[in-house]
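Researcher: Go.
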Amino acid sequence: MANIRAVWWRLAACLFLISCAFSPISAQAPQKRWTAKWIAYPDAPPQGAGVFHFRRMLDLPEKPRSFLVRVSADNRYRLFVNGVSVSVGPARGDMLHWRYETIDLAPYLHAGSNLFAALVWNWGELRPGAQISHRTGFLIQSDSAADAAIDSGPAWKVYWDRAYGFTPGQSDVQGYYAAAPGESVDASLYPWGWEQPGFDDSKWGAASPVSGGALPAGASAYGEAAEWQLVPRLIPLPEERTIHFAEVRRSEGVTVPRSFPAGTAALTIPANSKASLLLDQHELTMGYPVIVASGGRGAVATITFAESLYDAQNHKGNRDEIAGKTIKGLKDRIAFDGGEARHFQSLWLRTWRYVQFDIQTGAEPLRLDDVHAIFSAYPFQQRASFASDQAWIGDIWNIDWRVFRLSAFETFWDTPYYEQFQYVGDSRIESLISLYDAGDDRLMRNTIEQFDQSRISDGLTASRYPSSLPQYIPPFSLWWAAMVHDHWMYRGDADFAHRFLPGIRAVIGWYERQLDQAGQLGPMRWWNFMDWTFPRGVPPGANDGHSTAISLQFAYVLRLTADLERGVGSAAEAEHDLALADRINLAARAQSWDETRGLFADTPEKRQFSQQTNALAILSGAATQPRGVAERMLADKSITQASYYFRFYVDEALHESGMADRYLTELEPWREMLRLGLTTTLEEPEPSRSDSHAWSAHPNYHLLATVLGIRPAEPGFRAVAIAPALGELKRASGHMPVPAGEIAVDFQRRGISGLDASITLPPNMRGSFVWNGQTSPLQPGLNKIRR
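Model: Structure:
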């Protein structure tokens, strides 16, 4: 049998290499070969920090109908055409999958002289942990041979902007920080108007081609000599729109007009004075802060961004309250030069509810003409809704959607403020929300691909990716396999799912090698994180062997992969996975089931018990009486409780065990967030490092999937199973997108157990409706059911 398995794995590896050769990325390789050169500032340190401006004038005989270009940079760029920002990027990837954007510039061009300009920067040693980098560079190429004059090369001019500096964010922020550094700008050194056509760049030098950095003539997007292996961006450009601060909550040293900053009034800080302004957005948000200022030569402003304020004991308390509290957070700095209507915009996104300006002026007064921001995030649009007779549920729905939006940019983010890493554990939950609330799977597909690309030689994925800081959490590799199954069930793309079977089989193979003769996992290396309520997040037995929790997680995911194998892979593999899951479950029942407590213990020694282990026992099928286990798992407060994050799996276990009606009573921690004035969901119970963690936003999935009971009965939602769990609700309604269109439901309770249901299915969808143990078929269109 071992020899058969070895042959199978070698065959799978060969099939994987063949599938890569014909992957969608290869199929999307541009028809025109890469002939443009990567360019940079001559003699600038390749990996050093710096901000650079590139310009190229081009005369056009007429306004073109189409002017497609492909553009990329390292680390980041913002492209302008005739003074208008038209693209930002590149979408984050790694050196083997370096993204480029394809943009049609025709709408921004006209007959005559046109300016193409690019702002490019490298954070150097202070770059975010999620930013992979080779060296500073910029690349642009037209897709038309007739427009090749725009291609990057020595005809482009470049300027090294010494006005900028970067400062470590970790020194100002409370808790672990791995996002972008603080920025400082000296306005007296900045080349104002550089992105406008009328700017005089006669003293700028020519850009220098990066040695070895351009793809050779005749090479594909995977050219062997390229330092950046270019592949197309697979997700849309981020949304950008103007937002305004709600009010000034506190000021010192200056009189603030009532209409500042939301209105048109300017604010003047007198000469030789100090002023402090605390601005409140009223809700957490994210984007590029913009300050328009005039005068104030010699003035300096320090701008601090924070999710919330801190009291004297370093506690946050109610987020709406500011009395006796101070701000701590990431800082930017501006030194003003006295110019008129100077426009300052941060290079990178900031996250905040509160922003404090601390300003010291010199001999000239400083006038703040305008203070606002450009909100930016992945362009999700909420297409789902939930309504009920309980208003507080709507409030939870709203904060969940807000934190979800702030946790999606070019990847899913764990937290928009502190890290901006894409972790598998967070991303699985965020991906389900993207399917249920937005019906948009593009970022989810991107995420699945990136974690497949992160896998190391023994088969495991990285825990977070892209990342310049390697980290491996074996349980997260299992959640990646579950994500592939999720996508297949909700979108039905068999070809997409099939691409990842070799990687999933490699993950399963790694785990299978860790099993002992008894069917439990032995000692495991790396960081075996499951949930923060365990010490360092690691459940008992994970490091030294015999962790029931991780063994059952493995069994749970084996059942999902068996389902996937039956659908798009190999029946033999499905049988193998099911047999392995049964073996693990039998071992758990024999070694870790405690008859006295009616619960599974965290290890065979039966000293510790947890919600995590017992939720996974239900999901994996190890629990022969799942309802009883679920009841005791909720009632016994002496066992380790699940965090906000892992409550997702506890709630899934309630659904699986027939206790979904308990779901709404388990939302008390989210009601407490509302009472604390939070406008997004916490990372963990107070004191929480972060006020914004989308792994806590899963009520927006469960309100639709559990309370309204809408779940796929077949891959791709070809059929639906609707089994509402209304708890104490008298009325609940909603709608959600599915591949075939939209499902809409409306439920009205009658007495104790009666129900009037109105369910609308899209064309060609069938389904079933379950209430009080009775099942009714559902047809396309409107279905009226009275029980």
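Model: Confidence is low (pLDDT under 50) at residues 1-31, 212-225.
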